[in-house]
Amino acid sequence: MKTPMTEARRPAGSTLVAHGILAFFTVLALAPIALIVMNSFKTRQAIFGSPLALPTPETFDLIGFTSVLGGSNFGSYFANSMIVTLVALAGTIVFGAMAAFALSEYRFRFNAVTGLFFTVGLMIPIRLGTVGILRMMMSADLVNTRTALILVYIAQGLPVAIFVLSEFMRTVSMDLKNAGRVDGLSEYEIFVWLVLPLLRPAMVSVAVFTMIPIWNDLWFPLILAPGEQSKTVTLGAQVFIGQYVIDWNSVLAALTLSIIPVLALYLVFSKGLIRGITAGAVK
Amino acid sequence: MTASMSLDSLTDRDVSAVRRPVRWHIAVFLAPAVLIYTVVMVLPLVETLRLSFFQNIDHHQVFAGLANFRTLLGDERWAYHFWNALGNNTYFFAIHMLVMVPLAVLLAALLSLRRLRGGGFYRTAIFMPTMLSFVIVAFVWRLILSPLWGITPNLLDALGLRSWFAPYLGKEQYALTALGFISVWKELGVPMVLMYAAMLAIPDEILEAAEIDGVVGISQFFKIKLPLLWPTVGVVAILTFVSNFNSFDLIYSEQGVSAGPNYSTDILGTLLYRTFFGAQFQFPDPHMGGTIATMMFLIILAVVCIYLFFIQRKLVRYQL
Fold this sequence. Notes:
The complex is a heterodimer of chains A (283) and B (320).
Chain A: H1 4-9, H2 12-39, H3 44-49, H4 63-71, H5 74-105, H6 111-123, H7 130-139, H8 146-169, H9 174-182, H10 187-198, H11 200-216, H12 219-224, H13 233-243, H14 248-282
Chain B: H1 2-19, H2 24-51, E1 54-57, E2 60-63, H3 67-74, H4 76-111, H5 119-131, H6 134-145, H7 151-158, H8 172-187, H9 189-200, H10 204-212, H11 217-244, H12 249-255, H13 268-277, H14 286-314
Antiparallel strand pairs in B: 1-2
Helix pairs in contact in B: 2-14, 3-4, 4-8, 4-9, 4-11, 5-9, 6-12, 9-11, 11-14, 13-14
């Protein structure tokens, strides 16, 4: 005897169910992370004795962190990851924006072909060329350098960056650019002073979702730059944790040290990130 | 007559004035991207494909035609590993499609409920594992599933399901399934947000019209929202396929280079790594590595083409 209207007017029950399901998945997403971070601050006995308890003054212990920071080069791994990620990011954005501008602004003979050339990279993962990449890096003497990683990540990021940025470039008003040309600006000046500033939101989105795969990548650091000098934090954590599986304090501390910066970054950028993913895909 | 002549010559000169000079700025804008992309991505890919047609005999590269492919698909020692990895990869992908996609749709549908509060919080939280690297994810779950630590057995005990516990990652029959679920745990965020965006794009008028017609709640979801969502499901499927068929990090971090136990979690990415770089009882072989990479390339290319030319066209896109 229920009419649809009464159902629509009585949302409390169904909203409660929705909250229940969402809360369940929230716990499922966060609890494993919380468990690791929480236990990394506890003594060995407390880790095994009461793994689900928060650290208390009695069980609080930083032994894991001191042994990780003292016994490994985590600091230099962090520096490597930062340098590789930031330089690769800058290269992807700048070169990607330049190419996107050329492809969306001018008509020239190879425009469509060049666009298609980059589109292939959207679908074919760069990893499939690893055998060739390693050979090239060896002949260029770039193995175990950050430069090798930076070049690979720029090549990996370019197709997506060009694709998304040219979508946004097409929305920049033609009148604005032509006004610049009438005022005697060169094409370079138009790009730098008129187009780039309008593209800033799109570039932030591209930056955020280009950055995560670079920071988190294990494959290329493992293959191109496994040396101590060029190790990234993802590879460093992998090697370190693999060696210390028995020392739970150190393993948990190493995991926490790798998680915290990513979480901090995420909480700062989460809005832009999620907007960026949807903008890139829905466009 | 003369007037039109002069007009013609004028426009001609104008056109040539615009077209004649080489527009160097186009080349300058394109050069860095084309150069890096070509040298670091395209040429090595071509080189990898080329290597698969050669063999190394007495330190000389010899053209071998399709011999490497015949070895990979026919020779017992290789064929077993290749088909095993391909089968495991397909199973891994199937878990994502059957578990991750429905979950993403469900969560997106709940998040887009108009009366729901705190949606932003749930979305941010459920997305968080996506930010972590597979290395971290692998070790987090190894610790949680470890019989030594006892988190999982004790939780199952509390639910009265103690007998369900097994060292999932160490048993041949469970390991790949467990890894599939771990991967879903991490990868759920992006599909969920994509589905969510697609649902928000449905105009309110359509939903209001449905409500006036008495189509609400679950039937509204199946009759109105889901049909509008199929194109997004297609995008998620193809993205997941490409990422699954070149994944490596999770299996390598969790199970090691041999993708144990007894190769039960071996996928194409780990097989490629072992072949190219060598492992226990195995010498590095760039030519067979190139052959496996070429097979992966062909598989991904074929599926992407099938998707673009057949499936994507069948997915009805409604003009909203």
